[in-house]
Specification:
Probable branched-chain-amino-acid aminotransferase; D-amino Acid Aminotransferase, Chain A, domain 1; single chain; transferase; globular; alpha+beta; BCAT-like_C; 2 domains; D-amino Acid Aminotransferase, Chain A, domain 2; branched-chain amino acid biosynthesis; EC 2.6.1.42
C-alpha cells in the first residue's frame, strides 16, 4: 500500500507524482525504514523523531505529527512487514538553489513480508568507495544513496553479500545499509559517527540495552585489522535487527549470534513498541 500526500492506493507502483519534484530530480529529501510487527511499528517514536530531525537538517519543514498520521494510515491492522516514509522538498524550479513553491512531498509505502530473525549470515567485502564523515549524507538518511548502491554492487560482483565502507582514513564506517558491530569477549564495539557511521535506530538502542544482556557496548574506531581480530561481527538495522557476518577478508566467523544477543533482539521484536 502506498500513500502520497493525501492519496492512498492499493496499487504498488501507480501514483500521480509531480515530475518537477526535487526528490526525484535531485535526491533532495530524506527517508526512514522501520519494521512492523502485528500492525505496530518497532521503536516508532524514535523513527519519527529521527525522520523529522533529518528533514529539519536539510531545511525541510515537516512536523512529527504529520509523519505519524502518514504512517498510521498506511499500515494495516495486524500486518507484518516494512514501512518506508519519504519526505522530499517538493516540486520546484530548475536549479540547485531554487526554493519550492509548495509544501514538502510526503510518501509512505508499506510492504507486507515475513522476515526471519535472525536473518541468514552474510559475507562482507571491503568497498573501494569511501564514506565522507563530513557529509550530511553520512549522518542523515538522505535520498542520495548512489555511493551505497555502487558499494553493494561492487561487493556482490566480488562474491560477497554486503559491502563494508571505510572512511578516507581507512577506518570502518558502516555497511551499505547497516551498522557494524564487533564482539570482543563480552564487549560490543561499533564505529563512532565521526568515522562515518550512520546513527542508526537499532544501533542506538543496542548501545543502551546491551548491558541487560550481559554485554558492555560502546563506540570505538576500528581498523580492518582490528575488525578481523574480533570474536564475531554482526550488522544492525531496523529490518535485520541483528544479522551475523560469516566471512570477512578471508576469515570465517561463527554464523550464529550469541544466544544472549538473539534474546535481546527477540525482546525488541516482541516488546519494542513506544507508541
Amino acid at each position: 500500500m502506498i500513500r502520497l500526500n493525501q492519496s492512498v492506493s492499493e496499487a504498488e507502483n501507480v501514483q500521480p507524482f509531480d515530475l518537477t519534484d526535487r526528490g526525484l530530480l535531485l535526491a533532495d529529501g530524506v527517508f526512514d525504514t522501520s519494521r512492523v510487527v502485528g500492525g505496530r511499528i518497532i521503536l516508532k517514536r524514535l523513527h519519527l523523531a529521527r525522520l523529522a530531525g533529518d528533514a529539519a537538517a536539510l531545511g525541510i519543514d515537516v512536523a512529527q505529527e504529520q509523519l505519524e498520521v502518514l504512517a498510521n494510515d498506511v499500515v494495516p491492522d495486524g500486518a507484518n512487514g516494512a514501512l518506508r516514509l519519504t519526505v522530499t522538498r517538493g516540486p520546484g524550479a530548475r536549479g540547485l538553489g531554487r526554493e519550492t513553491a509548495g509544501a514538502p512531498t510526503l510518501m509512505a509505502r508499506f510492504s507486507p513480508m515475513e522476515m526471519l530473525y535472525p536473518m541468514a549470515p552474510v559475507r562482507i567485502g571491503v568497498s573501494t568507495i569511501r564514506r565522507n564523515p563530513t557529509s550530511p549524507t553520512a549522518r542523515h538518511k538522505t535520498l542520495s544513496y548512489a555511493d551505497n548502491i555502487m558499494a553493494l554492487r561492487e561487493a556482490v560482483a566480488a562474491g560477497a553479500d554486503e559491502a563494508l565502507m571505510l572512511s578516507p582514513e581507512g577506518k570502518i564506517a558502516c555497511a551499505s545499509a547497516a551498522n557494524v558491530f564487533a564482539q570482543f569477549g563480552n564487549r560490543l564495539v561499533t564505529p563512532p559517527v565521526s568515522d562515518g557511521a550512520m546513527p542508526g535506530i537499532v544501533r542506538g538502542w543496542l548501545l543502551k540495552e546491551a548491558l541487560g544482556a550481559g554485554f558492555e557496548a560502546g563506540e570505538e574506531s576500528l581498523t580492518l585489522q582490528r575488525l578481523a581480530e574480533a570474536d564475531g561481527i554482526f550488522l544492525t538495522n531496523s529490518l535485520r535487527i541483528f544479522q551475523p557476518v560469516s566471512a570477512f577478508t578471508g576469515r570465517s566467523f561463527d554464523a550464529a549470534l550469541p544466544s544472549a544477543l538473539i534474546g535481546l533482539g527477540q525482546t525488541l521484536l516482541e516488546g519494542g513498541f513506544d507508541d
